UniProtKB/TrEMBL annotation:
<dbReference type="Pfam" id="PF05633">
    <property type="entry name" value="ROH1-like"/>
</dbReference>
<dbReference type="GO" id="GO:0016020">
    <property type="term" value="C:membrane"/>
</dbReference>
<keyword id="KW-1133">Transmembrane helix</keyword>
<keyword id="KW-0812">Transmembrane</keyword>
<keyword id="KW-0472">Membrane</keyword>
<dbReference type="InterPro" id="IPR008511">
    <property type="entry name" value="ROH1-like"/>
</dbReference>
<comment type="similarity">
    <text>Belongs to the ROH1 family.</text>
</comment>
<protein>
    <recommendedName>
        <fullName>Protein BPS1, chloroplastic</fullName>
    </recommendedName>
</protein>
Length: 334
């Protein structure tokens, strides 16, 4: 794989975070609202801390991605609970709040569809490998030859970037550009909700950008400048720095794929390709047993991990959709 050249990093909010003066300490919010907001932000900080990689092998692995999506679902569920705690009926929502919530939700649904599409592509590619393994298990020279061709096709298929994941990147750009949420006047509860939505948006952009980076031929990362006045700000900045640095390092090394599990499978595939001659003989099938077994184990694990990750993405989609549907239903009843 040729050396990839990443475009210059974009530093958002170059003149400081527009939310720096919105922390509870300086907002003169009632103590009850401060407690609600602080509880939400502490939970967010704890989730971000759980995502901090213990080593370089944690980044861009399916296990990390599964955990990241689980925690993102928890945060979005927390927002629903926060709205209930605020006792802020939809008829009392400022129009800006409604527009922001609806805009974010529809974009997140589109992101989910893009990620689901890419996971489906990976599942199909994995199914192709399992068929290859079946052919390799056969002591038949023709099937061995077909398997050799299929291994080459797998490598070509797995590196194909879909248009949907590219559209996901455009959506992420728009979410980052709109991080500067509108100010809410004359509504202390509205201010709390808006600040909570800011935290949700930051976590969502970060997680989804890592996902996009796993499926692209170049990293899709943001360097968000987050104020330490947020209870989760310092934790997020540390997490973002470590994860982004490792992803950029992975791409700089020019690996076949940045996703750890796929990289491991590709190494097995490459080994098998070298072992199978263009015109294989039946006897050569016996020499492949160990490599076939290794590839089979890795594809089986990949299948289970992809299933778990797909389930979490679907769960995220349902959480976002349920919140959006509830808001629209309440608006129709106003």
């Amino acid at each position: 794989m040729s050396q990839l050249h990443e475009p210059p990093r974009r530093q958002f909010f170059p003149f400081g975070n527009p939310f720096r003066m919105r922390s509870p300490k300086g907002s003169n919010l009632p103590s009850k609202l401060v407690d609600i907001l602080n509880a939400f932000e502490r939970s967010l900080a704890e989730r971000l801390q759980k995502l901090h990689p213990s080593g370089e092998d944690d980044v861009l692995s399916l296990s990390w991605m599964i955990l990241a999506m689980e925690l993102l679902c928890e945060t979005h569920s927390d927002v629903k609970n926060l709205i209930k705690e605020l006792d802020l009926p939809v008829p009392d929502w400022n129009e800006k709040l409604i527009d922001v919530y609806l805009d974010i939700s529809v974009k997140l649904l589109d992101v989910c569809n893009a990620l689901s599409s890419e996971l489906s592509h990976l599942n199909q590619s994995n199914l192709m490998l399992r068929c290859v393994i079946h052919n390799l298990d056969s002591a038949d020279s023709e099937r061995l030859a077909r398997a050799r061709t299929s291994l080459k096709e797998w490598r070509q298929n797995i590196t194909t970037t879909s248009s949907r994941i590219k559209s996901c990147c455009v959506i992420l750009d728009s979410l980052v550009e709109s991080l500067d949420l509108p100010k809410i006047k004359n509504s202390a509860k509205g201010k709390v909700l808006m600040q909570a939505l800011y935290g949700v948006k930051v976590q969502t952009v970060f997680v989804c950008s890592v996902f996009a980076s796993a499926f692209l031929s170049s990293p899709k990362l943001f360097d968000l400048d987050i104020a330490n006045t947020y209870l989760w700000g310092q934790t997020f900045s540390s997490l973002q720095n470590d994860v982004n640095s490792e992803i950029r390092s992975i791409y700089a090394r020019g690996k076949f794929t940045p996703l750890k599990e796929l990289e491991a499978i590709d190494q097995c595939v490459g080994k098998l390709q070298q072992m199978i001659p263009e015109k294989p003989e039946v006897e050569e099938a016996q020499l492949l047993k160990n490599s076939i077994s290794e590839l089979g184990g890795k594809t089986e694990k990949l299948s289970k991990d992809l299933h778990s990750l797909t389930k979490e993405v679907d769960n995220f989609f349902q959480i976002v959709l349920a919140g959006r549907d509830a808001l629209l239903s309440n608006l129709r009843g106003c």
